[in-house]
# Entry
Amino acid sequence: MTEQHNDMNEMINEIEASMKRINSGEILEGKVITVNENEAIINIGHMADGILPKNEISNEDIDPRDVLKVDDIVKVYVVKSKDENGNVLLSKKRADAVLVWDELEAVMNKEETLTVKVKEVVKGGVITDIKGVRGFIPASQLSADYVKDLSAFVGVELEVKIIELDKSKKKLVLSRRVIEVKEREEKKKELFATIKAGEKRKGVVTKTAKYGAFVDIGGIEGLVHITELSWKRVKSTDDVVKVGDEVEVFVLSVDSEKGRVSLSMKDTMEHPWDKEISTFKTGDVVDAKIVKIMDFGAFAKLNEEIEGLIHISQISEEKVANIKEVLNIGDTVKVKIINIDKDKRKIGLSIKEAIEKPVINLDEFNDEDDMQTLGDLFGDKLKNLDLK
# Structure
């Protein structure tokens, strides 16, 4: 009797529920009974099942069978409580559009992200669609970098955060930029924790200026001062690098507190001096051009890369009081390389050592036939002297 009584109560409840009046604008929960290419039939616990047409499932042109399966539980919006055939006309996309605001608000409060697809470009930004809700991404919020062509984002899926939501005004503003900025900051912290002076890194030139170039080495922008671009003198940064160039750099110093990294490009290259010095050795006599005169000596170039010092004491055998009275800038002189310091990249030169000195042949004075004694020279005179 008890089971029959319970079954009876359930039946009565179902009948009462089915007799319950359904109003347009309500959102109900139902179960998918059947689905075909044109529509889905939804059991909403009413005396009549609900009809969910293809065009009320999504704003996209989809096949209902790709979205809904038999026995799926769905939220639906009552468009008409009774159509011309006595059926209840339902809409899933309208229910989504109503419920999505609550979902979006929850996402924003939890500071979670959303994945959206860009639909079109409008003045000042782009538009996305989230379950029927129109979302706006301002151009300034599309990326952490400057965006020149907004149309390049059409059809692209982006992970975004909600930065403004107003249910009453149906206003939804999204941002990709805040995510990128956060990602870069986290990557920057990780890099500062591992990067060390003395390392070599690969990077990309992001900006050039009169005083040097900025290079992104994987989340951190470091400065390559103009004096560190090349071993040769650089007049303009743009003569050496351009924005977008991939370069190898040497880390000179890291200041994690100030967020600064000093880089060098020339330290990744062989110094021209080291390459050219192999063509010279101590004792070589070569031509050199005087390029600078100081009180203590003169500097002379052996070639474009190698420059040496002629100390004042190495200019002449005679004492030189004023170098400018002996040498002029631009003079070409013969010099002898008297020392090479490869560690300090310095060369000592000498003009006086390069001058050929006459060679005395001592053998000429050892020829017995030509040698004369005092007796040979003064013999007769000595005989005539009275030594008594």
The chain has a mean pLDDT of 85. The helical segments are 2-19, 64-67, 92-109, 177-194, 272-276, 374-384. The longest helix spans residues 2-19.
